[in-house]
UniProtKB/TrEMBL annotation:
UniProt cross-references to CDD domains, sorted A to Z: TLP-PA
Family the UniProt entry places it in: Belongs to the thaumatin family.
Pfam families tied to this protein: Thaumatin
Entries under InterPro entries matching the protein: Osmotin/thaumatin-like_sf (IPR037176), Thaumatin (IPR001938), Thaumatin_CS (IPR017949)
Signal sequence annotation: 1-22
Keywords of the record: Disulfide bond, Signal
Keyword Membrane belongs to the record: no
Official protein name in the record: Thaumatin-like protein
Amino acid sequence: MENKASISSLLLLLLIISGGQSEVILNIENQCSYTVWLAASPSSGDFNSEHAPGTLEIFSMPEPWTGSIWARTKCSNNESFYFSCETGDCGTGQVDCQGPMPRYPVTLLNLSINNKSEVSYEVSLNHGFNVPIRIRPDGGTLVDRSGSSCPVVDCIADLSNVCAPELVATNKNGSYVACNSPCDALRDARFCCTENFSGQACQPNQYSKKFKQLCGLAHTYPADNDPPTYSCGGANRAHLATITFTNNCPNTIWPGALTADGGAQLSENGFELASKAKKTLDVPSPWKGRFWARTQCSRDSSGKFTCATADCGSGQVTCNGNGAAPPASLVEFTIAADKGQDFFDLSLVDGFNLPLSVAPQGGSGATCTTSSCKANVNAVCPSELAVKGSDGNVIACKSACVAFNEPQYCCTGAFNKPETCPPTKYSKIFKDQCPQAYSYAYDDRTSTFSCTGGPNYDITFCP
């Protein structure tokens, strides 16, 4: 698990900035009710562009770096697969947008990072508004301001309510999509702070004053320095667990991820993984959730994405907050904060679809060791638990709880305690094949593993 310096941002983009002795990372959470597509100029490295509502993206920033990050909205491909967005479009025709500046209006998150992991940051409406944004440093103090903590800056109001008709940006149907700045809309030196209106002659105007009333912590015209552009140093070092996924199966699989307890979903919560391929994913701490792999996936004529096993029902490759439909082999994690005690396990409580293993990389503890389920439970699955594919072969094996939904198998009702819910003939089949995996709800003694010290983890399908 890596130590990285941290900022957070919220669309009613939440950006968390963490900073410290190593590097700056951004935790970007999309709290909007709609999907957004991130973009940056200049390139800020490898991040996932598309963010569904409630998803979290974590990525490291290069040092030094000075530029802008923004969100594009209402994006789609046309019949020629040219990708464009109604707001924030960068004109490349592609989903990835790192380099070109956007077509205004757009809310800008401006950052300047030096070689000391010090971050200067602002929310700027100098080129208009399209989405609410908040920037929240994770700890730290202001550079050259003794002892002062690094403050939040944001614009989380809906400026459409105060957008003057002459500033309104519309789509091809004439509907409001964003609000221009007066400089970009009217091209007047008074609003652009050019010619005779530069320097001290640049003053708030009737438009910027309306913006300021709702977004007092954002910069609303070119000379706006209230609040100042803050520079933050010594922010808390974020602890990330890097999860490496390896597909040793002979066929392509589609791993899925689900954050538990209503937490923000990881931005990459579903992806394709070809045979023998690897992929890494950074997980924040603390974090609780699960991973699994879907099999035999395809799209129908309407483009709907479905899988024969462990489908998450989203109709897409990404699962977007949906869990796996059982039966599914699961890897479950509780990642602790501050390199505390992590817990992890393999679970067949919802049944089995693929062999898998999880191996800590680093860390310590009596049970900080690999947990593996290498056997193909499908080969010994009783007919009453079997799920068969279109060719008649067994492709997954239900647990008895999933198959029969009876208290003695689900450990519910009168069977809701370890003393009253012993192993059954069905759970013993799973346990005989995979002794380290959970075979039923109270199978804790040999199935829970833990590590301290902030390790990373390798998950292998078909180990």
